[in-house]
Inverse folding.
């Protein structure tokens, strides 16, 4: 007796079609899984029989062998519970085989036969649509994300009983219309709440307009965290494709819940005690995206950057450069997208008051030097905008005049982003920060006076090749904000000022 259904294994964020075959033959009652099942897939052996019996179905009291094909792909995750169960039901002739071929099945089963929320269902639906299947059968809790895929029938079932009823023609899923665009974005914070800090506000506007990374160094209480948390309020809205990518990552990580499309840009703030796997992705067995990937198309805020583990800080170099992170294990390598804007905040020394005009730094010189060495040159070279955030003056603290609201800043940011999209149309490059080095040198289009300033800066600032390109990208963004096609000397001068503040020994005088 033989049965076959279509399942999907999620590897990284991609769904891979898996043919689940079941054979019932002679031998003592048992369930054997073949075809490189992972640890979580092997756990299904102990869940599926109780789930089938709780649904009022019969489990064959014979030897059951289930093969997961192709055999060269490692399959893991709880989403294979349902297709394994349905393959066994098809082999034992408890469901009609004719209706099995048109749908992919995915879902975790409880011992009572209920279908519980399962990570990665959006990837499952995308893989099914790409294969040309008519629909997917998924847990009811994952219906909203599965319906984000156009042209796909979504059968959202609460339990195994309803799945069998659907295949027998005795149960019909309710017709639910979903909002493919998701909810409207809303922010409870605004830049008009920020007092003073004109340079930092301007730097974050430039960062939002061009997608540039930012490092802010200053004394405790200067407002670094407050500024960083308001960056998402001036970022342009997610496009449909970007929102789907963000939703897919959150779905694979199991963070989506019953919600549909993620409408707001992510803002992730991991604690400095986070592990390397937690930051970059990985884990044992089922590899999950880390914080750098969950911040994809959004903001990754690392407060107290120097308190993070050194290997975690160094691990940021690949995603900052390539917009992706590759997690390698013995079983293979998995790639996660990680195109985020890094906003980091740090104190100038362990006590936080080196260079502060009001407080005395009590750090021993060697401790301050060790503290600063945590920020390596290669990492700083990948941060486009580096600035000091000074302590607020008495007038700024007591001032009642509100600052410029986020809505006004966001309008300028969106105009600058539109210029960049038009300039790079056809290249799939949304902003200046993602320009390859040679293209950045070509697109900067410096005026004669700006070229002279850049020549002098190369000598005086000892710019590396990467630092040179990043200064050009920031200057191009500043020109876009100002509405200039040619980068003038003032635009380049502002861009270079963001690279002079915190280089080398200047970090010790920040504040």
């Amino acid at each position: 007796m033989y049965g076959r259904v279509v399942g999907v294994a999620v590897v990284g964020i991609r769904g891979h079609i898996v043919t689940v075959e079941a054979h019932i033959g002679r031998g003592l009652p048992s369930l054997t899984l073949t075809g490189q099942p992972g640890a979580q897939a092997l756990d299904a052996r102990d869940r599926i029989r109780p789930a089938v019996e709780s649904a009022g179905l019969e489990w064959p009291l014979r030897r059951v062998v289930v093969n997961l094909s192709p055999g060269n792909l490692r399959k893991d995750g709880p989403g294979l519970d349902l297709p394994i169960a349905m393959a066994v039901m098809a082999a034992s002739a408890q469901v009609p085989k004719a209706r099995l071929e048109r749908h992919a099945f995915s879902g975790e089963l409880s011992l009572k036969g209920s279908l519980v929320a399962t990570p990665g269902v959006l990837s499952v639906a995308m893989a099914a649509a790409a294969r040309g299947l008519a629909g997917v059968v998924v847990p009811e809790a994952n219906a909203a994300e599965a319906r984000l895929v156009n042209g796909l029938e979504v059968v959202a079932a609460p339990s195994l009983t309803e799945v069998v009823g659907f295949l027998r023609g005795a149960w019909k899923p309710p017709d639910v219309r979903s909002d493919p665009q998701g909810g409207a974005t809303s922010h409870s914070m605004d830049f008009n709440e920020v007092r003073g800090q004109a340079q930092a506000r301007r730097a974050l506007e430039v960062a939002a307009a061009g997608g540039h990374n930012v490092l802010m160094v200053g004394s405790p209480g200067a407002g670094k965290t407050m500024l960083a948390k308001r960056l998402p309020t001036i970022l342009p809205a997610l496009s449909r494709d970007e929102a789907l990518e963000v939703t897919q990552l959150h779905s694979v990580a199991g963070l989506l819940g019953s919600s549909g499309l993620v409408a707001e840009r992510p803002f992730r703030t991991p604690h400095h005690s986070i592990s390397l796997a937690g930051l970059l992705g990985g884990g044992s067995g089922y590899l999950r995206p880390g914080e750098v990937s969950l911040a994809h198309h959004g903001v990754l805020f690392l407060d107290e950057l120097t308190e993070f583990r050194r290997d975690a800080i160094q691990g940021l170099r690949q995603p900052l450069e390539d917009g992706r992170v590759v997690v390698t294990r013995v079983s293979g390598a998995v790639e996660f997208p990680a195109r985020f804007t890094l906003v980091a905040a740090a104190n100038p020394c362990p006590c936080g008051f080196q260079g502060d005009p009001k407080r005395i730094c009590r750090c021993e010189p060697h401790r301050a030097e060790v503290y600063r060495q945590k920020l390596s040159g290669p990492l700083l070279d990948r941060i486009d905008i580096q600035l000091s955030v000074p302590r607020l003056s008495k007038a700024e603290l007591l001032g009642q005049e509100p600052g410029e609201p986020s809505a006004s800043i966001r309008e300028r940011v969106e105009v600058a982003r539109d210029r960049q999209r038009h300039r790079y149309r056809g290249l799939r490059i949304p902003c200046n920060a993602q320009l390859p080095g040679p293209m950045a040198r070509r697109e900067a289009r410096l005026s004669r006076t700006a070229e002279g300033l850049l020549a002098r800066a190369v000598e005086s600032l000892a710019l590396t090749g990467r630092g040179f390109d990043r200064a050009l990208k920031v200057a191009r963004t500043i020109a876009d904000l100002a509405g200039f096609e040619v980068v003038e000397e003032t635009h380049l001068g502002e861009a270079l000022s963001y690279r002079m503040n915190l280089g080398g020994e200047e970090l010790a005088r920040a504040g």
Summary: The CA atoms of residues 144 and 259 lie 6 Å apart. Confidence is low (pLDDT under 50) at residues 179-184, 502-511. The longest strand covers residues 14-25.
